[in-house]
Amino acid sequence: MTVHTSSEPHPGLAAARPPRAAGPGPEAAALRRAYLDLLKLSLCDLVGASTTSVGRTEDGLVMARELSGDQLRLRAAGMDWPLHGLTMAGLARLDDLQACVESIVADGVAGDLIEAGSWRGGSSIVMRATLDALGAGGRTVYVADSFQGFPEGAAGDDLPGGERDDLAAFDFLSVPVEEVRKSFTRLGLDEGVTFVPGFFEDTMDGLRGQRWALVRLDGDTYDATRLTLDALYPGLVRGGYCVVDDYGALDECRRAVEEFRAEHGITEPLEQVDWTCVRWRRESDVTFASEGAVGARPGRASGEPPRAVERRAARHVPTVRELELERQLAELRARLEHTAAELQRLQGSPLAGARRWLGRRLGRRGAGR
Questions:
Q1: Among 135, 180, 184, 368, which is least packed, fewest CB within 10 Å?
Q2: Among candidates 89, 151, 92, which has minimal Cα distance to 118?
Q3: Percent helix, strand and coil across the chain, each rounded to 5?
């Protein structure tokens, strides 16, 4: 991951738009805009005056902290993990995704829409809501994810200490498919949605040969990005959009995209959406050699099948205060254990017997007076 070391504000923060929705008006277009704006704020958990963010400590623990005031720009920019929000994408990416959906509907671009790497489903919800608001209910939104977090051994970019980021270790990133399905239902968007649960190595071959008007990729790692590009991009029709969420933030993702584009002679220009997301619109009618072919690529670079990580049933994220109390409690326990060990050592020392004998002698002498 590219580390921002300048004293200047991160460009993503500087460009973050205010978390504000358009007001409703009597016209259908104004009502549609107000509905979608409010939906995007809700998905980002930006409707209230504060929100809760999840971060990581230096030793890899996750913790929750409140964001308010100017700190809300982190969420608007899509630069944190929301504790309660349904998307990490931020407002600019959701705005652009809405615009892409509106464009393919207005231009009559045929095909369904898919998000590969959905987490809690927020971006897919925006795609479904935009289609419904435009009266384009005949298209299906596919929501593809493992719905059990990253597989064992999934590594992100290098950390400052030289180690690789162990993405599989975070239970917070594991969201069951039923939880995501219920979010669509609560928002009245459960029609025209197909869930594709499972690791991409097991599911992508089944999606080859389908026609897509929009492909959104948010798999983070090299393997996930390359595999989904191989399986889905050949089905992207001319005029359709390919959106890559982590291109600017994760070196692994960017490398997979650049290799794929170079190997297939894709020259459509990359358009910057925000500090990390890019997209391009397919203009070429070139047929891919692997188009429609099942198993054209073996999957993970390691060649090994993905293995699920055993997750804890409870996924409570402690606050910074709770972590501090846990640290203090651990210190107190360590002191008590040390004191108990010291008492035991003293009671078992060679002088302990002499002290007991002397005590008894003194006791008898006092009793004889």
A1: 368
A2: 89
A3: 40, 15, 40
